[in-house]
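About this split. The held-out portion is used to measure sequence recovery: a designer receives only the structure tokens and must propose an amino acid at every position. Recovery is the fraction of positions where the proposal matches the reference. Here is one held-out target exactly as it appears in the evaluation file.
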């Protein structure tokens, strides 16, 4: 489970982190901002502390970095059956057309499309899920294709003209495969979604297929469907497993190659054992082996270098079964981890004092390992748009019996905060100077604490009633939204609690007030800039935030807990009673935990559809107009560093870090280095 940065209040903060230099590295004026196009901004991040690693740790990092990138093709194919076809067409055009006038408006429009495509790992917006198309004409695009090296084009036996006829609707028709994930109620969500997780099957067929395999009373349920594509062959529903020798084998073989290079240079036996299990899982596709790996991974708490690698998050599947490929390679930030560890050490206190029903509380909160990490590399679904917090593993029974790891991505958050410090957003959307000053003083800390508690105690809290089944079975297309809402509500409920002052992780409850201001402002107003006019909310995190903010607004109306303020034709939001707002957060948390614990699909539908989906179109237009004047990109992501091995003979003796500053060139380079899968899978 991951907390996204876009929409998290972190992007509103002034920068309070000094990002101290570590390991003898010299401080430098590192340029965070890299590129800006459409509604997107590309940033960079440093890897402080990398130079202090031992040669063995650097070598391990390099192998894990290569393993991460080796799976890059997979996410393009998972998001859309023709994702790799489009990507390789773009790559061929960019590499072949050196003589074209690149100052022309048409080329600039095509180049913007290419950058948007790479940013979203496909031709569907990374956040809204809607298909986007080039602004240049098809005739111009066709000319680019015809002047490209035909050997580089993904023609698949077609002539260039046949290929253009085939690809025109795929790229240029917004109505063809319009949504990568469609969560609308009352429809077949699988058929309506254009991802490549299913082919030729209906939602009912998928649910029937798994209902015969899943047993609600099973103590250690297998995560059926996590690592496969479901298809119909001769009228029979089958799974194509993602493994060596199965679907995506060419890329997975490369992942395994680099993981096997990493195993001999691991830091300890626990880390070695975990990676050995991960390799075995990739070779067999056995989901029980995936659980064994996760248990071993959670048990490794001593390694400085860590990695997330696999088919993990299910946001890209409308019914929450199939997982996107992602990887994060990181270093433990020893100093910054002290804050988040304080929260983890007191997880049982937070569970015991939670406002949820007693029967839904865990008697014992098992082994939460919490840390702040310095990211070395992100790949797959983790890049270019990146989370700011991660809590894994996702399997509820593994978390309950063996614990979990919660991390905050320190250097990623730092880069966001550097940019946010320059942003005019607070002055435009904050209701008062008091809010602005409070944000300047406490904004970065309140965001860090929200992320910490969301990941550490939010996702780890509560339990499902015996015999109910996991949320992907019971809550279906609403499971992800409600899980993120539950974790957010845990963080919101406790960020105004004096316990955090007592623990020494925040100076006063003013930090909590800052978070309340920002969360309500974002949930009701500012996040709206991320969707087109006429649309409602589709993405799980956006639905979650509006659900919470709108619910507490409606429930607190009689006491004027929150109010909308109109001034100079602009809409603002004001929190009038912070303590009462906290109570409302607690009430909603109690209800959402009940829904999850009891598997109440009817209540889940009412809550999400009633509060989390529909958008006030007049307010949306106002917000978008105000954002246009600010010239602020509503979405941000990252260009990844390069690790360069220093060789002595065949031995890696050191690893250097390079920081690319050209997003398009970097994406084209990645395509050359890590392109293993066929055009269509």
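Reference sequence for scoring:
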């Amino acid at each position: 489970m991951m907390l996204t940065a876009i929409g998290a209040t972190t992007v509103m903060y002034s920068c309070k982190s000094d990002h101290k230099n570590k390991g003898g590295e010299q401080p430098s004026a590192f340029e965070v901002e890299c590129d800006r196009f459409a509604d997107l901004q590309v940033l960079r991040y440093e890897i402080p502390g990398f130079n202090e690693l031992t040669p063995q740790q650097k070598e391990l990092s390099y192998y894990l970095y290569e393993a991460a990138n080796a799976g890059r093709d997979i996410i393009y194919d998972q998001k859309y059956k023709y994702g790799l076809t489009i990507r390789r067409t773009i790559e061929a055009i960019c590499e072949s057309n050196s003589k074209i006038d690149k100052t022309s408006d048409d080329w600039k429009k095509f180049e913007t499309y290419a950058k948007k495509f790479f940013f979203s790992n496909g031709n569907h917006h990374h956040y809204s899920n809607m298909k986007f198309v080039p602004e240049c004409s098809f005739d111009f695009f066709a000319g680019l294709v015809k002047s490209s090296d035909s050997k580089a084009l993904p023609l698949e036996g077609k002539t260039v003209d046949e290929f253009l006829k085939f690809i025109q609707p795929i790229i240029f028709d917004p109505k063809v495969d319009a949504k990568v994930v469609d969560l609308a109620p009352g429809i077949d969500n699988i058929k309506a979604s254009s991802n490549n997780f299913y082919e030729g099957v209906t939602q009912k067929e998928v649910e029937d297929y798994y209902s015969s395999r899943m047993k609600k009373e099973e103590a250690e349920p297998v995560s059926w469907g996590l690592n496969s594509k479901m298809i119909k062959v001769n009228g029979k529903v089958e799974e194509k497993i993602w493994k060596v020798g199965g679907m995506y084998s060419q890329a997975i073989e490369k992942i395994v190659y680099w993981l096997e290079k990493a195993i001999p240079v691991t830091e300890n036996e626990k880390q070695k054992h975990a990676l050995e299990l991960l390799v075995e899982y990739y070779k067999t596709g056995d989901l029980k082996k995936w659980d064994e790996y996760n248990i071993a991974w959670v048990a490794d708490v001593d390694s400085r270098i860590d990695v997330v690698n696999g088919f993990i998050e299910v946001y890209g599947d409308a019914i929450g079964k199939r997982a996107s490929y992602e990887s994060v390679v990181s270093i433990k930030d020893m100093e910054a981890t002290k804050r988040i560890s304080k929260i983890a050490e007191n997880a049982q206190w937070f569970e015991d004092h939670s406002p949820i029903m007693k029967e839904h509380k865990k008697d014992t909160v098992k082994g939460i390992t919490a840390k702040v990490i310095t990211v070395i590399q992100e790949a797959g679904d983790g890049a270019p748009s990146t989370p700011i917090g991660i809590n894994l593993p996702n399997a509820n029974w593994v978390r309950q019996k063996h614990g979990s790891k919660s991390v905050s991505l320190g250097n990623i958050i730092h880069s966001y905060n550097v940019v946010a410090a320059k942003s005019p957003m607070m002055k435009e959307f904050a209701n008062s100077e008091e809010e602005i000053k409070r944000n300047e003083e406490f904004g970065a800390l309140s965001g860090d604490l929200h992320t910490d508690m969301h990941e550490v105690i939010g996702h780890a809290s509560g339990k499902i009633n015996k015999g109910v089944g996991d949320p992907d079975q019971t809550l279906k297309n609403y499971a992800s939204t409600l899980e993120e809402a539950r974790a957010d509500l845990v963080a919101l409920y406790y960020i105004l609690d004096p316990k955090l002052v007592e623990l020494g992780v925040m100076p006063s409850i003013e930090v909590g007030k800052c978070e309340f201001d920002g969360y309500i402002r974002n949930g009701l107003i500012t996040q709206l800039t991320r969707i087109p006019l006429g649309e409602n909310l589709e993405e799980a995190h956006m639905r979650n935030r509006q659900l919470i903010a709108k619910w507490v607004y409606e429930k607190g109306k009689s006491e004027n807990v929150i109010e909308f303020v109109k001034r100079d034709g602009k809409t603002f939001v004001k929190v009038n009673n912070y303590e009462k707002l906290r109570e409302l957060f607690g009430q909603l948390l109690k209800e959402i935990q009940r829904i999850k614990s009891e598997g109440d699909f009817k209540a889940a539908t009412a809550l999400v559809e009633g509060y989390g989906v529909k958008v006030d179109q007049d307010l949306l237009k106002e917000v978008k107009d105000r954002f246009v004047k600010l010239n602020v990109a509503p979405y941000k992501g990252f260009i990844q560093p390069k690790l360069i091995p220093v060789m002595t003979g065949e031995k890696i003796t050191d690893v250097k870090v390079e920081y690319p500053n050209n997003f398009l060139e970097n994406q084209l380079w990645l395509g050359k280095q890590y392109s293993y899968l066929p055009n269509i899978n």
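Annotator remark: The radius of gyration is 24 Å.
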